[in-house]
């Protein structure tokens, strides 16, 4: 799989760990990851925002691994935050997990299904 970032100078610069678009060439397999929540298999939801962000990314990485992929296969990530005040910790944890990889990215501040959750993340990966 080859990915080519698309960041034309005629649109606002993509800041914060993403590209405006990614062109995926010769995609073989696509994995659509449903919104992952900050919950363990036994139902525990941590209270700390950073712990919730890390747990969501742990869940995404587990799904990717089960499909024979890793975060470098992510082409699109959509993050739902319960409040703008969680934007900084979300960005910090996401950038730590993704390293130098920069998928297309959207962050939406919205109501989330469970009031305990501050974050939910869905993604698309290609291999």
Describe the model.
By secondary structure, the protein is of the alpha+beta class. It contains two helices and six strands, in the order βββαβαββ. A four-stranded mixed beta sheet has the order 3-6-4-5, with helices on one face. α1 runs parallel beside α2 (87-98).
Mind sketching the topology for me?
Elements: E1 2-6, E2 21-25, E3 30-36, H1 49-66, E4 74-81, H2 87-98, E5 104-109, E6 119-126
Helix pairs in contact: 1-2
Concise account of the structure shown:
The protein has 2 helices and 6 strands, in the order βββαβαββ. With 127 residues, it is of the alpha+beta class.
Ranges with pLDDT <50 over ≥5 residues? none
Counting DSSP H or I runs of 4 or more residues, the number of helices is: 2
Question: Could you state the order of secondary-structure elements as H and E?
Answer: EEEHEHEE
Q: Share of helix among residues?
A: 10-25%
Counted beta strands: 6
Shape: globular
Strand content: 25-35%
Strand order of the largest sheet: 3-6-4-5
| Rg over CA atoms | 15 Å
Distance between the termini: 6 Å
Query: Major beta sheet, specifics?
Result: 4 strands, mixed
Q: Which structural class do you get from the secondary structure elements? A: alpha+beta
The average pLDDT is 93
Q: Which descriptors would you attach to this protein?
A:
single chain, 127 residues, 6 strands, two-stranded antiparallel ribbon, alpha+beta
